[in-house]
């Protein structure tokens, strides 16, 4: 054991990497899973991978993917998440392009291993847990890590809970910080897309120095990054196409729209989905009297006779053909963010000092501040908007309102209904400020010539402040719409409203809302939340005793962890919590902003763990064991363990296998959260019901064909709300109609949850044939099966299960459903977390890594190919009638069977060039509803590949300067058109997992080291 140790923490504790550290920066290459070779061919590289026992990569029973600092630079992005998701088996969970409209998570950047969710993916910094950057799950946003401070990223998938604890069911991503750099480094990088927006400036600085005869080391690093918003506009034409995938409207009154003439529509089959117009019925000029009058393009239209002096129809329609939203409506897409803006500042410091071989100190501090800005649409104002504890509506505008123009007056039969986009308020924005502080401290050293120890502690604090702009206050809007004329002055009718500063609101026509009226009804929401994490632990490791094949290595340790959260939802209140969380307050749900509830919760866990490395056959067969027992104050005791084998029958050939039992305790949100607002699609199973019991159809949920329609009919007829619908004279002779295609589906935690349990199997082979130097081939099989998976029954299935059950209404499904007792409409379905399903993923990973010098061409080439094929991805659950069902999204858009990354590199002296291609398979949109290409409701896209190039040149003394640049998305491909109406699309059209909304990007950078 040397007296001076180099600390490389990450999956790690103490490791020696002499070959790697001796290399110049430009020569450092990726350490790939099993090659365990440095650039100069050295094979004595020692790291600790997926274990606290020091072992080489060749000795690991589990596969590992590694990206070095050079790989991150050559990826063409400085966004860590974007770089890591290039690896097969790694997906983006939340990204700046997928979270534009999210209340709590807009602007986050998290990863997901094996498609099992970011709450089952453990993110480590230097092998230590990192505090979550989210208030509604356990997830680390990679934008809080300084990219210029990262030495490498290590990703292992499946079954790491025995080594690192809960949350590691899908695997572990470990970000190892630079700890050996000496001197000063400064870097600047600028990127710009070919289309508008998205400019990206990053500045990095790092200073490191050893002192006191190399016993001490200090480093300080910082980075600043400013990324501009990418908004939907004409420079990305597909982003603003007002189209959706739906049935064409062939009603006679709307035939002027000629939807059957749209591409993909079949005049002989009007039930076939195709691309049709998709505009909003809420326009900047307003739509009134159910579409009898509307304002567009600077003029009024209405559907009264053309001979009436106040009547005017567009030239393309006949009397009776009034406002048609998919033709006359408003294109809400323009200006909305495809990728939000972000400003990030990260700074870190690392101090190590060796007082003696028995006492080494390491201190790391990290601070991150991330501002994100996403743009949504404009808020809309409708007469049917509800608010308050009693669910009152804003209501129609009185016929005496002085703002009503003649073109609307002549269409009304009384008061005036309305639908209006509030463009004068400005576009809605989610503004987030997130600050994160992390400290990692440990002491370590030698206890003897065979044993060493480490004591460590971490502290993390995350703070989020969210501002939601340009919402509106329902009560103030109602007051401002109710006006009167007194002495020739228009004022708000209600005295209390006038005392409140009410300003009359004119919504008839474009630009009619005055700045003062906009300010009066405008609401700016705000919320804040914190997460706190503290860990403390220690372990000893060394050699227990010698066997016939060598020493038995061991690790024994303990750990304590505290996780706490405090959330303060928006003070406007909501039906989920009341004003400031007080459910007794009547003043609730006053604004258009969907808020989240107040939460204050925490849990504690105490753990013991151990590992053994047992040689069974010298240099040929090793047994690796690990176990961890954890005591939670929420779910009690859980136990995780694994067992692995490494078999080396000959030089250049290695087999590896591991079984692991991993358990995950519910996180704070899953266990403690009050209902959090969410809107879900819903087809009421009682829709179509007639008073005589006829008209009920097969439920829309999974397994609906197994429903007993007689039971369903009986249950629907027994519902008081539906009977009230039939009793209303206005509904005489009509079938029951829920009146809406969606409902509120709040998500909620459940204190009765227990842990979920995963069994993971991996089997692999690694070949490094001596007759082809520099070549490594890997092939691994994996299967992860989770029972008692923590999830919720979706809204559609919950309602279907309630109304098809023989014990209606006395079952847990009916307990969470709220119907309007006057109209029968389903108002809310609470989605509680439960231990419901069995989830399973299964697949094959393959890799080819080859470095060679052809001889007849100067320079050196390298090939890096990584491929994943998913064999299985499914969920098993109990459906309608107790039928056990299996649902699989594998083969749908966004969950393809195949993922590939190919990287080709070339080096000649100080010049470096790489080409990278990533591929994600395509699929159908909905395997349940449309598994067959001949089905009418069928939407399919091909697989998508993206290409990028990178080049760099080093010069100056000791190659202290580097200039580099590249092109991302070389062929300017935005990906497939993925519009609204698809399960995997939305109205932004080009932001699915298969899309790259940025398009072609150019970047240049310069780096200097002194």
Counting DSSP E segments of at least 2 residues, the number of strands comes to 51
Structural class: mainly beta
Q: Per the principal axes of the C-alpha atoms, what is the gross shape?
A: globular
Number of helices: 14
Q: What is the helical fraction, as a range of percent? A: under 10%
Mean pLDDT: 87
Q: Report the uncertain regions.
A: 1-46, 573-587
Range of strand content: 35-45%
Rg calc: 31 Å
The major beta sheet can be summarized as: 22 strands, antiparallel, barrel
Please report the distance between the alpha carbons of the first and last residues: 32 Å
Summarize the structure.
This protein has 1010 residues and is mainly beta.
Protein model, in words:
- With 1010 residues, the protein is mainly β.
- The chain has 14 helices and 51 strands.
- Mean pLDDT is 87; it is low at 1-46 and 573-587.
Topology:
Elements: H1 18-22, E1 65-68, H2 69-74, H3 80-84, E2 90-94, E3 110-113, E4 121-125, E5 128-129, E6 150-157, H4 161-164, E7 171-177, E8 183-193, E9 200-211, E10 216-227, E11 230-231, E12 243-246, E13 274-277, E14 287-288, E15 293-296, E16 299-302, H5 325-328, E17 337-339, E18 341-356, E19 359-375, E20 380-382, E21 386-387, E22 392-393, H6 406-409, E23 418-421, E24 429-446, E25 451-472, H7 474-481, E26 483-486, E27 489-492, H8 495-499, H9 515-521, E28 522-547, E29 550-568, E30 599-617, E31 621-632, E32 636-650, E33 653-664, H10 668-672, E34 679-681, H11 709-717, H12 720-727, E35 742-744, E36 747-748, E37 756-767, E38 775-791, H13 795-803, H14 812-815, E39 817-819, E40 826-829, E41 831-832, E42 834-852, E43 860-878, E44 884-887, E45 898-908, E46 911-920, E47 923-924, E48 940-941, E49 944-955, E50 961-968, E51 1001-1009
Parallel strand pairs: 4-7, 36-41
Antiparallel strand pairs: 1-6, 2-3, 4-5, 6-7, 8-9, 8-51, 9-10, 10-18, 11-17, 12-13, 14-15, 14-23, 15-16, 18-19, 19-24, 20-23, 21-22, 24-25, 25-28, 26-27, 28-29, 29-30, 30-31, 31-32, 32-33, 33-37, 34-35, 37-38, 38-42, 39-40, 42-43, 43-44, 43-45, 45-46, 46-49, 47-48, 49-50, 50-51
């Amino acid at each position: 054991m040397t007296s001076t140790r180099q600390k490389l923490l990450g999956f790690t504790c103490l490791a020696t990497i002499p070959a790697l550290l001796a290399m110049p920066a430009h020569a450092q290459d990726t350490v790939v899973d099993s090659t365990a070779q440095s650039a100069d061919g050295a094979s004595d590289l020692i790291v600790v991978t997926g274990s606290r026992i020091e072992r080489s990569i060749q000795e690991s029973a589990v596969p590992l993917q590694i990206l070095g600092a050079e790989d991150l630079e050559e990826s063409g992005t400085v966004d860590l998440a974007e770089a890591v998701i290039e690896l097969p088996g790694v997906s983006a969970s939340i990204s700046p392009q997928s979270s534009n409209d999210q209340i709590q998570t807009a602007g986050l950047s998290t990863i997901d291993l094996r498609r099992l969710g970011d709450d089952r993916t453990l993110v480590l910094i230097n092998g230590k847990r990192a505090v979550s950057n989210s208030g509604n799950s356990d997830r680390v946003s990679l934008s809080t890590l300084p990219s210029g401070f990262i030495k490498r990223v290590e990703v292992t998938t499946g079954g790491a809970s025995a080594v690192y604890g809960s949350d590691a069911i899908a695997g572990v991503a470990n970000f190892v910080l630079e700890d050996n750099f000496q001197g000063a480094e400064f870097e600047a990088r600028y990127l710009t897309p070919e289309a508008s927006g998205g400019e990206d400036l990053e500045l990095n600085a790092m200073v490191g120095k050893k002192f006191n005869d190399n016993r001490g080391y200090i480093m300080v690093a910082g980075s600043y990054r400013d990324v501009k918003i990418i908004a939907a506009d004409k420079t990305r034409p597909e982003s603003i196409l007002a189209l959706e995938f739906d049935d064409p409207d062939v009603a006679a009154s709307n035939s002027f729209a000629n939807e059957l003439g749209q591409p993909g529509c079949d005049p002989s089959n009007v039930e076939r989905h195709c691309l049709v117009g998709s505009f909003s019925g809420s326009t900047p000029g307003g739509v009134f009297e159910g579409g009898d009058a509307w304002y567009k393009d600077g003029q009024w239209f209405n559907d009264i006779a053309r001979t009436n002096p106040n009547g005017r129809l567009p030239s393309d329609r006949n009397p009776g053909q009034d406002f048609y939203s998919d033709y006359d409506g408003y294109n809400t897409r323009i200006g909305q963010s495809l990728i939000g803006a972000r400003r990030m500042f990260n700074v870190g410091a690392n101090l190590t000092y060796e007082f003696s071989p028995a006492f080494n100190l390491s201190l790391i501090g990290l601070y991150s501040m991330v501002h994100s800005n996403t743009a949504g649409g404009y808020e809309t104002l409708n007469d049917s908007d509800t608010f308050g504890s009693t669910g009152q509506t804003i209501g129609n505008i009185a016929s005496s309102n002085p703002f009503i123009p003649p073109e609307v007056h002549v269409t009304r039969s009384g008061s005036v209904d309305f639908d209006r986009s509030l463009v004068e308020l400005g576009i809605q924005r989610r503004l987030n400020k997130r600050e994160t502080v992390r400290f990692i401290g440990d002491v370590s050293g030698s206890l003897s010539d065979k044993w060493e120890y480490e004591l460590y502690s971490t502290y993390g604090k995350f703070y989020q402040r969210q501002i939601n702009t340009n919402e509106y206050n329902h009560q103030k809007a109602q007051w401002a719409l109710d006006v009167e004329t007194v002495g020739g002055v228009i004022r708000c009718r209600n005295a209390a409203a006038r005392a409140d500063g009410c300003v009359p609101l004119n919504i008839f026509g474009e630009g009619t809302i005055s700045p003062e009226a906009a300010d009066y009804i405008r609401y700016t929401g705000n919320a804040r939340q914190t997460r706190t994490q503290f860990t403390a632990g220690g372990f000893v490791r060394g050699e227990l005793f010698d066997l016939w094949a060598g020493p038995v290595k061991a690790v024994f340790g303990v750990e304590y962890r505290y996780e706490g959260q405090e959330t303060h939802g928006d003070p406007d209140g909501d039906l989920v919590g009341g004003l400031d969380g007080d459910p007794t307050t009547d003043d609730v749900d006053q604004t258009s902003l969907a808020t989240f509830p107040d939460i204050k919760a925490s849990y504690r866990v105490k753990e013991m763990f151990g590992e053994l490395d047992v040689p069974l056959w010298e240099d040929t067969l090793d047994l690796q064991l690990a176990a961890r027992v954890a005591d939670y104050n929420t779910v009690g005791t859980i136990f995780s363990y694994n067992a692995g084998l490494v078999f080396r029958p000959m030089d250049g050939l290695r087999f590896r296998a591991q079984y692991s039992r991993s358990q995950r305790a519910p996180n704070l949100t899953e266990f403690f959260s009050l209902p959090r607002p969410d809107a879900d699609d819903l087809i009421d199973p009682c829709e179509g019901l007639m008073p005589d019991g006829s008209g009920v159809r097969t439920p829309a949920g999974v397994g609906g064909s197994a429903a007993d329609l007689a039971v369903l009919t009986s249950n629907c007829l027994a519902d008081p709300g539906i009977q009230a619908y039939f009793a209303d004279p206005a509904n005489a002779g009509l079938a029951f109609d829920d009146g809406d295609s969606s409902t509120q589906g709040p998500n909620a935690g459940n204190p009765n949850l227990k842990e979920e349990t995963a069994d993971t199997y991996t089997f692999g082979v690694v070949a490094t044939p001596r007759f082809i130097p520099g070549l490594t081939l890997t092939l691994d099989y994996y299967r992860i099966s989770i029972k008692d998976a923590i999830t919720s029954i979706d809204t559609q299935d919950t309602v279907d299960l309630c109304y098809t059950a023989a014990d209606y209404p006395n079952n847990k499904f009916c307990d969470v459903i709220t119907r309007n007792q006057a109209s029968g409409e389903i108002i809310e379905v609470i989605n509680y977390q439960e231990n419901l399903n069995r989830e399973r993923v299964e697949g094959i990973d393959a890799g080819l890594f080859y470095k060679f010098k052809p001889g007849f061409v100067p320079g050196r080439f390298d090939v890096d190919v990584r491929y994943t094929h998913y064999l299985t991805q499914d969920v098993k659950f109990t459906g309608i009638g107790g039928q056990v069902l299996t649902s699989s999204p594998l083969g749908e858009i966004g969950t393809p069977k195949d993922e590939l990354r190919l990287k080709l590199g070339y080096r000649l002296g100080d010049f470096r060039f790489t080409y990278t291609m990533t591929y994600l398979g395509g699929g159908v949109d909905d395997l349940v509803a449309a598994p067959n290409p001949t089905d009418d409701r069928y939407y399919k896209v091909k697989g998508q590949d993206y290409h990028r190039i990178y080049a760099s040149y080093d010069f100056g003394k000791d190659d202290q300067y580097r200039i580099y640049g590249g092109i991302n998305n070389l062929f300017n491909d935005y990906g497939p058109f993925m519009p609204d109406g698809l399960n995997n699309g939305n109205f932004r059209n080009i932001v699915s997992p298969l899309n790259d909304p940025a398009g072609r990007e150019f970047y240049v950078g310069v780096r200097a080291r002194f």
